[in-house]
Structure formats: structure tokens, C-alpha cells
Amino acid sequence: MTSLSEYLDTEMLNELASRFSDAVGGKVRILSADGSLLAGQGPQGPPSAQAKVLLDGGHIGTIALDGPGVQPPAAESVRLLGLMQDVLTRLCRQARQLRDRVEELAAMYRLTEVFTGRTDLKQVHQLVAETMVKATGADACSIRVLNEERTELMTIAVHGLSEEYMSKGPILLADSQIDQEILASGKCVYIPDERTDPRVLYKTEARREGIVSALCAPMTYKGRLEGIIRVYTRRPHEFDWFETSLVGGVAAQAASAIVNARLYNEALEAERIRRQLRLAAEVQRRMIPPQAPRVEGLEISGIYEPCFELGGDFYDFIELPKGNLGVCVGDVVGKGVPASLLMALVRSSLRAHVAHVYELSEVLAAVNLDLWRQSDERDFATMFYGVLDVPGRRLTYCSAGHEPALLVREGRGTWLAGSGGVLGIDPAMRYRNQVLGLRRGDLLLIFTDGLPEATNFKHETFTRDRVRAAALEACRRGESAEGVGKHLLWEVRRFAGLQTRSDDLTLVAIKVQ
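Predicted structure:
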């Protein structure tokens, strides 16, 4: 049982009793609900007149006038007694409201402490729902967030509601008038009775859950709506301006907590992916020869620079019987992780077939069939594959839609034409071997399209002509195979400037001594 003393202290009660006594010209006592004296002086027997002090229908105290043997008070005194009763009621109501506001503000402060440092997203969702009920004195709460397309509101947490309510599925934003009002205004929306309001979509569920009044608040973070919080009461209730402000404030705090937790988890996931990419890049780099083979009579150099950590370009040197050396440069469609996986497939297929297939054209046909069978219809690759007969100074090569290789001989550059289409598109594609005799001083340059198609800020491409000019310049200067590769790389960088590369860059330079 509550009492006047819970809302007004003894000093105030005594001051009120004294003032009331002066007003009526008699003794006024203020009693608790059980009849014990709280303030004032006078006979301890039955009063000549009294008025009960009620708060929300509950008896919390009494104002007593006079005592035994005193004549019935005048009508004026009775009216004054009624006014005193009203004053006490108002003072108690204001004191209670003030206390409630202080508790609500304290709840807001505690809310900040509770949310700080929380990183488990599901835990944050549930904590927000529970804290909202405690902070507002409501009976239940639900939290819905927008999906990535911002077309649906998905229920992510409830408190004080059944699991059935939690699992009722997403709400289409276009179908919900209330949520559209919130989205348009950015303000709270009040629902007097969920069971009958025409704007409410789930009236049957509201009746089953015992929901009556509701207040819907936008969860906004940096001006962007993230979701909507609804607090419910199981009795008719009109939320005043302070309660509305409180719900809006808690909703903003909740939005910040949820977004921060999500960003933290996304950062963790991004870091995990980065670690996986670094590991994958290390594995992929092991597929690229760490150094060129040393072959008597030849200088060989290779350069591989992926656009991202993982790339679709590759080159390889394969030791073959009778001292022959296989040289391969490949380029698969795309960039990043998908391209790196496709690159591993093409490289593995090539190495598997060269081990027991002699004819280059048959090797490429087998690789083409493997890629066609094991990849998507949009996937394809280009490849230049050649076999160097070092003692015989002869190159047998086959190209599958790849950039033409460049032969620099006696100060002139000649492009070596291809003989077949790309790998992975047509399972019946056939390829044709071509043979090139090599001479002392020849330079063979095999590269991917990342070299001639490098662009600058004017959107100009480096072009094959510049590739040939740079190779000729390096040969005139007497550069080694490694020097030719570095010179070409320097010329491309000088041409592109600070423009971000959009493709992998790979080249192999072979110089006949």
C-alpha cells in the first residue's frame, strides 16, 4: 500500500498542514492510508470532517479537520478541505511523474553503458528489446530491421511476446501504412488500439497477444532509417510527450548499438576474408615459378603482377623429355578469387596432359575440353604454349586466342599469329602447331593483354605498337631477358602514371644467346 509519505517528505507535509490550518481556522491533520499521523496537530479521535487523497483510484492518505466535540465545520471549510485534497493529489501526481522521469533518464544513461562494447549482434538485438520494456514501463517490444534492398522489415527480436509472433515473417514496407508514415516523417507513430486500427496489418495476432496500445519509433542512424521499434501495452494507454521522447531516444541509441555491432562483425568478417585471401594468394604465387630455369644458350625471365591479391594470369615452365622446355603464358577471364580458381584449373589441366601427350595441338584441345566440362559457360581462357628444342634452336608453339607473341630479330619486331580460339567455349575447337627457327640474338616476348591494354588518365591504351617499340629499344641497349622485362614494366608504368591498373600483367622474355 502506497502512502503520501512516499511522494512528499515530512517537512513539506508539516508545512502544508500548517498552511491548511490557517486557511480553515482550525486544526488540520494529514494521515497516512492506515490512519497514522504524518503531519499536523489535533485530537487523535474521529475528525469532524475528512477527505481521502486518491491517486489512480488508490487511497494514499487522508486530510482530517477538527476532532471530537467540535461542531460540524462550515460549508466554506468543507470546500477548502476539498481544495486541499486536490492540491495534495496534484502534488503527489507531479512527484510521481518527476520520479518516473528521473528513473527513465537514469535508464537512458544505463542504456548507453549496457550497449557500449556489445559486439554479439543477436545479443544486442535481444538486449535492446528487453531494455526498451524496462525503460518505458511497457509490456512488450518488437524490433524490425530493413533488409538490404530496403523493401522488407524483418523481425529480429521480441520481448514479452510469443515465439509465434516472432516467426510471423517479414513485412513488405509497401503494404504497411504505419511504417511508411514513419519512413516519410522520421517521427514516432501512435496506435491507440492495435485490435481495431485500420492501419494495423495483424489485428488477429494483436488480439491473441493481448496487445492494445502501441508506439512505433524509427531506428535512425546518421539520418538513415535502419529499422522500427514498437512498444506495446496490454491496456489502453496514451503516450505523453515525455514517453514519446524517451522511446524515440532509446530507439536512436538502439540503432547506434545495432549498427555498431553489425559494423564490428562485418569488420571481423572482412578481416577473416582478407586472411583467407592472403593465404590463397600465397598458394597461387607458389604456382608461379619462383625463378626462371637456367638453360644453356638461353636467357629466360618472367614477371607476374596481379591486379588484386589474386589474379587470373599465370606463366609456367615445364621440363620435358629430351631436354625440351615447355613455356606457357595464360590468361583467364575475370579477376580476383573466381579468376584465380579458374587459373588453377587451367594450369593443372595443362600439366596433367603434357605429361603423356606429345602434340601441342592435342594438349590444347584436351585443356579446352577440360575447361568446357568443368566451368561455367561464361568462363574461358587464352593461352600461348610453346616447346623449346634448345639443341635444335627451334620453337614449336600453339596459341588459343592469346595475344600474339613478339619476335625481335635483327632490329625488327614480328608478331607470331595464333592458330585457334579461346579455351572453354567450343568443345570441338581444333588447334594447329607452328614452328619457328631461332637464331642467335633473337628475343621472344610472350605476354597477356594486361600489357598492351594498360590505360592512362586520358583513357589511352599502351597498345602493341608501344610494346614492340619498348622491346626494340631494350634490345638496342643490349638488355638481358630480365632487363627487357623490367624495361617494359617501366615503360608501362611511365605511360599509365598513377592510374589504377584494371588487369593483371604477365610477361615472359626469352633471349637466344
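Summary: DSSP finds eleven helices and 20 strands in the chain.
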